[in-house]
Amino acid sequence: MTTQITSAPVAVEPRKGARRRPEASSAARVGRPGFLWALPATVFFALFAIAPLIMVAVLSFMSWNGLGSPEFVGLDNWSRLADDPVMLKSVWLTLLLTALGVVIQTPLSILLGVWAAGHQRNRAVLSVVYFIPLLLSATAVSVLWRALLDPNFGIPARATWLFGDGNLFGEQATAIGVLAFVSTWQFTPFHTLIYQGAARAIPQVLYQAAEIDGAGRYRQFFHITLPQLRNSVVTSMILMIVGGLTTFETVLILTQGGPGTDTTISAYYMYQKAFKGFDFGAGAAIALALVIAATIVSLIVVRVSGYDKMRSDMEGVS
After folding, report:
1. Which coarse location class applies to the principal site listed for this UniProt protein (predicted)?
2. Greatest CA span in the chain, whole angstroms?
3. Which of the two ends of the chain, N or C, has the fewest CB atoms closer than 10 A to its terminal CB?
4. Are 169 and 260 within 8 A, CB to CB?
């Protein structure tokens, strides 16, 4: 009878000074990327964002018509804008259009985003068609709707029973309505995309547990989906607010600030001051004021919503 003796494998210690395997050494160095990885983006941001912003801030205290050398005037540009009735009216119109964008686009984007995250029949085809405006520039969209809403040759001229005389740009109320509608048509798909991705990231086990407890579709939406989309709602609202405060092309092409100054928002008034009135100091002051206002409003939204205290693994948890 022969007995086989098998010995257990013995771990062999590497010789002193022996070269370690590349896999082990690279695994030991796993961590955050170094500063050099962020250097190109930092340089790009400094050259094309920080430097122009500093130049605009300096120019806001200067008087310059585009020729010759700027002349320092202190707070003269700011004091003139504070007493300018058109500027004060433009601030109110900017806030109004921004508020309309948030109120209209937020619920619409949430509903469409949650729907697009599902598995309905023909969902993919309809989503592609709906996202087409997102591929177009603001200028192209404005030119398109300017032609469609032309009072002489557009849709209003063919449907006088609905639009009356057809001149939607002749009164302040209808002109503001057109601006809000066009902005909603173009930018709602972008925010829908945000909510679609966030809705797909919600764990399905939450809905399964809710079904076991007898919760219907509507209770699942208000008690599971909406709380889980909290961070996405704050992010989307900040983008809407910043976009609303700085919108320009839509007003330039659709209404040109008219009728009169009834749709002259702050960004368009900046354009008028700087590039039509050649008062680049006042235009720079308006631009800097818009940057400051957008930053302050964004910080307020972040602090009030508690977004700055939440993490990605705490989505919807208060």
Report:
1. membrane
2. 112
3. N
4. no
Q: Give the amino acid at 112.
A: L
- Which tokens in the block code for residue 18? 């022996």
**pLDDT the model gives residue 6:** 46
Q: Give mean pLDDT in consecutive 10-residue pieces for the chain, a chain of 318 residues.
A: 46 53 48 81 93 94 92 94 93 94 96 88 80 89 94 89 87 94 94 93 93 91 93 92 91 93 95 94 94 89 75 47
CATH topology assigned to domain 85-276+285-314: MetI-like fold (1.10.3720)
Strand partners, 62: 72
**CA 2/CA 239 separation, integer angstroms:** 80
* Contact present, 240 and 227 (Cβ < 8 Å): no
DSSP calls for the chain: ------PPP-PPPPPTTPPPPHHHHHHHT-SS--HHHHHHHHHHHIIIIIHHHHHHHHHTTEE--SSS--EE-TTHHHHHHHT-HHHHHHHHHHHHHHHHHHHHHHHHHHHHHHHHTS--TTHHHHHHHHTGGGGS-HHHHHHHHHHHT-TTTSHHHH-HHHHTTS-TTSSHHHHHHHHHHHHHHHHHHHHHHHHHHHHHTS-HHHHHHHHHTT--HHHHIIIIIHHHTHHHHHHHHHHHHHHHHH--HHHHHHTTT-STTTT--HHHHHHIIIIIS--HHHHHHHHHHHHHHHHHHHHHHHHHHTGGG--GGGTT--
Q: Residue 78: count other Cβ atoms within 10 Å of its Cβ.
A: 17
* Residues 127, 168 contacting (CB under 8 angstroms): no
The token pair that represents 101 in the structure block: 């964008």
Name, in order, each residue with C-beta under 8 angstroms of 138's C-beta and a sequence gap of 6 or more: 186, 247, 249, 250
Give the number of other CB atoms < 10 A from CB of residue 45.
12
Spatial separation of the C-alpha atoms in residues 204 and 199, rounded to whole Å: 10
Helix 230-246 vs helix 85-116: crossing angle, to nearest 10: 150
